[in-house]
Write a structure and sequence with these properties.
By secondary structure, the protein is α+β, with helices and mostly antiparallel strands. The chain has 3 helices and 4 strands. Strand 3 and strand 4 form a beta hairpin.
């Protein structure tokens, strides 16, 4: 092998190694797809926790619902309220913790990378994939 051929071969090997390491670190296209799905789930449960559940409570004399159900009035003004995960077709989990606290959960692929909106009293637990929120009626 001539000396003039060694440098391009080494450079090619270094570039290939960098590409392989880059894919290993980032996870490649599959990881990107899963992260995008998780962002959709985070947006869904944020809308449910921030807007849909308080609307349901408002329609029920300021009482948190025991479970989530379709409601035309509460769905009308909200854009793309989904109570079912669009990727698994499983319902998002809702739990009434007390008379004024509730949580909405999703099954995330990589919950530790999810950063739902933390404003407005939402608490996200990456271990459980749940948003927890306190409810206070405007009547109190």
């Amino acid at each position: 092998m001539q000396r003039s051929q060694v440098a391009p071969i080494i450079l090619g090997a270094l570039i290939l190694t960098a590409i392989v390491l880059g894919l290993a670190v980032t996870g490649g296209p599959e990881a990107g797809r899963l992260e995008k799905q998780d962002r959709v789930r985070a947006e869904d449960i944020t809308r449910i926790a921030r807007s849909y559940v308080p609307c349901l409570a408002g329609e029920a004399d300021q009482t948190l619902p025991d479970s989530l159900a379709e409601d035309e009035t509460c769905s009308e003004g909200l854009n793309t309220i989904r109570l079912i995960d669009p990727f698994t077709d499983l319902p998002y989990h809702y739990e009434k913790i007390s008379d004024n606290r509730y949580r909405v959960c999703a099954s995330f692929s990589r919950a530790e990378l999810v950063a739902p909106d933390t404003y407005g009293g939402l608490e996200f637990d990456a271990k459980t994939g749940c948003l927890t929120k306190s409810y206070s009626s405007s009547l109190n």
